[in-house]
Amino acid sequence: ITPVFCNATLSDARSETVELANIDWDNLGFAFLPTDYMYNMKCSQGEGFSNGELQRFGNIELSPSAGVLNYGQGLFEGLKAYRKEDGNILLFRPEENALRMRLGAERMCMPSPTVEQFVDAVKATVLANKRWIPPAGKGSLYIRPLLMGSGAVLGLAPAPEYTFLIYVSPVGNYFKEGVAPIHLIIEHDLHRATPGGTGGVKTIGNYAAVLKAQSAAKEQGYSDVLYLDCVHKKYLEEVSSCNIFVVKGKVISTPEIKGTILPGITRKSIIDVARSQGFQVEERLVTVDELLDADEVFCTGTAVVVSPVGSITYRGERVLYNKGGVGAVSQQLYSVLTRLQMGLVKDNMNWTVEL
Ligand code: COI
Question: What mean pLDDT do residues 217-238 have?
Answer without folding.
Answer: 97
